[in-house]
Amino acid sequence: xxxxxxxxxxxxxxxxxxxxxxxxxxxxxxxxxxxxxxxxxxxxxxxxxxxxxxxxxxxxxxxxxxxxxxxxxxxxxxxxxxxxxxxxxxxxxxxxxxxxxxxxxxxxxxxxxxxxxxxxxxxxxxxxxxxxxxxxxxxxxxxxxxxxxxxxxxxxxxxxxxxxxxxxxxxxxxxxxxxxxxxxxxxxxxxxxxxxxxxxxxxxxxxxxxxxxxxxxxxxxxxxxxxxxxxxxxxxxxxxxxxxxxxxxxxxxxxxxxxxxxxxxxxxxxxxxxxxxxxxxxxxxxxxxxxxxxxxxxxxxxxxxxxxxxxxxxxxxxxxxxxxxxxxxxxxxxxxxxxxxxxxxxxxxxxxxxxxxxxxxxxxxxxxxxxxxxxxxxxxxxxxxxxxxxxxxxxxxxxxxxxxxxxxxxxxxxxxxxxxxxxxxxxxxxxxxxxxxxxxxxxxxxxxxxxxxxxxxxxxxxxxxxxxxxxxxxxxxxxxxxxxxxxx
Length: 488
Ligand code: NAI
Ligand code: MG
What we know:
- This protein is of the alpha/beta class.
- The protein has two domains: 2-7 and 271-453, Aldehyde Dehydrogenase, Chain A, domain 2; 33-269 and 471-487, Aldehyde Dehydrogenase, Chain A, domain 1 (3-Layer(aba) Sandwich), CATH 3.40.605.
- It has 16 helices and 21 strands.
- An eight-stranded mixed sheet has the order 1-15-16-17-14-13-18-19, with helices on both faces. A six-stranded mixed sheet has the order 10-9-8-11-12-20, sandwiched between helices.
- α6 (173-186) links the parallel β8 (163-167) and β9.
- α4 runs parallel beside α6 and α10 packs across α11.
- The site of 1,4-dihydronicotinamide adenine dinucleotide has 26 residues, from α8, α9 and α12.
């Protein structure tokens, strides 16, 4: 059953005037090579692919497709840079380079934010206030650790691993690059980074910035390409460490490929987070937290609060308020400062989400979407709410990675803990309640790496992030994030 709100019940007497962020100040080349040994180079195969703007399907630039020979050349450059320079450099000097990258990202924050929204479809409000500042914050934070590693791990003689291969997804392109590069460099490793094929542009702008920052050639190499390029990085024998963020499916392939080799591995995979609202929660604040947890950023967040558990006494009120709020969410131009929900990252991802909308209805859940119109070109999905769902439904079990929320109700805390933990994932969770004791009680029992209380999706470089079970292993951020790049 599909229920659409009638446009007549929605107060349309007011509207925001468009407030587009200017894109005049950005500079993009029409074609990008591979960043190897400090220079942009042509790919050996001569192959390029397009990266498009998912909000209008227009081509933004062509980027090179790296093959195994390019990967090998990058590994050689990274090894040379490691042996000759980076591992011998005084840690305080290494820290200065990392600090310089942080400063330069801040200086170019506007350009990075606009390119992030153009290439990936996320609202400019998010890229400006979350992605880019947090990316800079990660470089600042890890710059500080570079010469203090011995204090971080007293008596354990911390040493870099060597050359790291890092493969990242499309949902937070620059931020994921920062999460991977900052600790690796601060610890004295050299790297090959592969951005996702739909969002390579901010990583390539970062390559330009790294050139400008005068980092020794080969310390950072940035290779574009799709799954085959990623697989070539994973296979490369000259790499000492693989760090991956992306789907559980690819994470498992990588784990198999790395098994039995000397390579160290960290995986940050999917999630199906429970956002739990108790009867004594501040309801309006919780509704805003639910919206922030699943709808902002199109639900393209691995820790998105995609399962909502509401205690029975407040379920009616929470769902009603949520539907009202959903009607006011603005879906559209990612560059407009009023936009809450931008474009879905790719046609493939939109098809995945749409297939789950169908599955949910076939499973017997009730689907609600606001009725407002969507732009004609580009990839869009209205914020979606499923009620009448069951634990056994695929929409409550599987990661959808879109603005789709599945709601269940519960009576007791024991019941909600059992339901919330009944998933192959364990990345994050949220708890909304007025009582500190209930927060502590629940956080002890929920199997999730990160648990937010009376807030959602808050990040800080000093706090470790990572999951349990099929959400992966290893931690990024904080002191824990250093361990992934050190021999102890
Ligand atoms: P994906 O896991 O295929 O892509 C992530 C990265 O891995 C990309 O850079 C990709 O080029 C690379 N890659 C793909 N195949 C590879 C291989 N065999 N070896 C090495 N690298 C490889 O994710 P995709 O297809 O973009 O999204 C599929 C689903 O994954 C989404 O619907 C979502 O559920 C989940 N996902 C989770 C993310 C997270 O942050 N945990 C991020 C992106 C997607
Ligand atoms: Mg793109």
